[in-house]
Amino acid sequence: MAVAEILLGALVLLVVLWIISFTSAENPIKRIPGPAPLPIIGNAHQMKTDVLDLLLKFKVKYGSIFKMRIMLFEPSIFTTGLKFVEEVSKSYDFLDKANSYRFSHNWLGTSVLTAAGEKWKIRRKILNPAFGVTVLEASVESFNTFGDILLRKLQSEVKNQSIDIYQHLNLYSLDVICGR
């Protein structure tokens, strides 16, 4: 009985904190347009369709910057504005990651994609020369070619069963790196 009461109390506390954080008048994220989230599940109910199509629809409806909330996580901000992406990716003002990144550490480790703070800064300095605009522009054809191969492999393997995508992504990465 006491365990159920504690769990219920924790759930109520989480919901109250979520409502307070979301309705806070001084929250600058409130000014960013986006679809209205439902309590607890946020915008997860809208992701039943193809996610890319959904994001494109939201881009048309809300503009080049919009927000969505998935479950109780803080809102995710999406952008298609190249200048905004450049500023964020060049800046050291955005060193911290959202709490939702912690869930990807088991899968991706603490790579430059998921690391935060000083760890991110060090890894970013090491990798920066390899990801300059000219290098990336020269790699687009490889990304597309090997991406198509990866998709064909995944489509032939999936057939209504789950697969371990980790090895496929590793092979794709090696193909792109070695294939250019």
Automatic annotation (TrEMBL):
Q: Which domain of life is it from?
A: Eukaryota
Keyword Endoplasmic reticulum in the entry? The reply is no
Span of the signal peptide? 1-25
Instruction: Give an example GO molecular function.
Output: oxidoreductase activity, acting on paired donors, with incorporation or reduction of molecular oxygen
Q: Name one Pfam family in it.
A: p450
Keywords for the protein's UniProt record, in alphabetical order:
Heme, Iron, Metal-binding, Monooxygenase, Oxidoreductase, Signal
The protein's matches in SUPFAM superfamilies, at most eight in alphabetical order, are given as:
Cytochrome P450
Q: Please list the cofactors this protein needs.
A: heme
Q: Does the keyword Oxidoreductase apply?
A: yes
The family line of this record is: Belongs to the cytochrome P450 family.
Entry protein name: Cytochrome P450
Q: Which organism is it from?
A: Photinus pyralis
